[in-house]
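Feature request disguised as a bug: please show the residue count (375) next to Tyr recombinase domain-containing protein in the output. Example input:
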Amino acid sequence: MRGTLRKKPLKNGRLSLYIDYYPSVWNPHTKQYTRREFLNLYIHANPVSSLEVQENKLFMEIAEKIYLKRMKALMLDANGIFNKDALEADFYLYALNFIRGKQKEKVDTNHYETAVKYLKKWVGDFLPFRHIDEEFMKKFKFFLLSTESLKSASIKLNQNSAASYYDKFALIVQTAFLDKYLPEDYTLRVPRISNVDSPRDIIDDEELRLLMETLIDDDTVFRSSLFALLTGFRFSAIKIIKWGDLHHSASLDSWYFHIIDPKPERSFKHYISQQAVNILGKPGEKDALIFPDLNYHRTRSKLKDWFARAGVHDKAKFHNWRHRYATDLIEKGEDIYIVSKMLNHKHVKTTQIYAQVPDTNKVKAAAKARYNMKN
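Example output, currently without the count:
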């Protein structure tokens, strides 16, 4: 493994300084091998003043220090020795590049970004890798379990949200270890935050009737809500589905979407009803988004107004359409395993927490407990 500090002539009469590696080296930010690392340092090809000579000398010294640092890192890596210089790198910059990579993969990064916001709320805007260790992970866990929500200083962050944000932070830390920014994977030593079974805000039949009878002045929010009610899709999935993702099975005479579901980040083939297809309207180009104007903050605001005018209180959350979809299937006798697949849950246990057995089914079950008894 070796590298050479080189100069690339530019049209403006300057020289761009870069390191030419041989063989190629792995770039953890771009996730690919590269032969050249441009240093964003430039010198004058033909300096004509003492100032330009001094500039050349300064930038060459900086380039040579970077070059020596890179060669040291490669030598340590080749011999299986951790490079302590990596501990001085900026965790936030690494996290930003990690999130951008996820966005290129069309993954919903909202929880990753929020996790970083809570991290900054706790430790501020400066976080080198050397501060991250087992104790740091434990303290951040405690912070998430005790802090207020970023949305309101009067509301405590709930445990399930804290668990999600900690998981996203832990995944970034784990990836940083694999990219050799940390000497060990501290996530293995610190247990994750467990989720708790919380009451689900289910929109009941009367509330659904009121909502359907109440006008809403945003067609995109209205149609995306109906589509979520009929399919169980999360907001993050509805936001990224394209017309090219919608297919028709001739043998089954049924429509289905085939996408990479953003939240579990895995392939999802989801069959939907003709009624759900009709909600989508006239098909567009294959690469066009089905709901191009769907915006989380606008949707949240419109839902609050819509539900308030319908007299449905404390249930104005887009995710509640998914709750209703799940409980509807169970109430109508669908097998819990099938429902788990329709929701793209990895484990049936998740579905059991998500969709509680409705009271109507409990009433029917209670009525079956009858015996012939003599007084």
